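Before relying on records like the one below, remember that each one covers exactly one chain. Contacts with other chains, cofactors or solvent are not represented anywhere in the record.
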Amino acid sequence: MSETNQAERQAIRIRPMMQFSTYQVRLAAYPKDASVPVHDCWKRAILRVISYLEYKLRDAGKDTELYKNILSYGTPEDYANFDPDTVEVGRFHIPMKLKTYYDKEQKTWTVFYNEPDGGLKHVPYPDGTYHDEAPVPDRSFLMDVSIMEEEECVAIAIRCICRDQEESIRTVRVIRPHFVKEMINDPMMLVTEYGVPARFAFNFGSMSPVNTKNASDS
């Protein structure tokens, strides 16, 4: 075999990938008013995540009509008309891998999605300026969210993972999903770390949005 043919047949080395957590938290959401059932807070939390997913699809320029069987449940303000029993199991792969699951017996709603890096907009820099950051090729982000109704509160588990080339030296920012901020600002809920009493909630004692100036959301 000639040297030319050998060069043409030479295998291309696939760069190994690595993955690591960029955000992980377990939260508890309590009714801000004792007259509000935990079940209502549970439904609002689910709808906030669904609204976030719908926003991500619109932002990617995709037709949300294709995803209507898991996104057509209304806004958090429509929680009174939201019936969790109607939530369907959905699996989609374009533009992101998206799966949802509802366990009626455990009163748990779960979503998983995996999307390519889409870049960031309006990122704060140390000098006080804001800049957009371009997507990084070969980088993707995975997120798992589980929302469970308990007796006294709603348990919310969130994990975000970055998958990138093992040899990459490119900066990865720690980014909190935007729906976390929306939950903290929800006028019906007191949100804290799981296991911490409601009186230590991030938004305790105020109906106005909390200060999240230094938080980075996606």
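DSSP finds four helices and nine strands in the chain.
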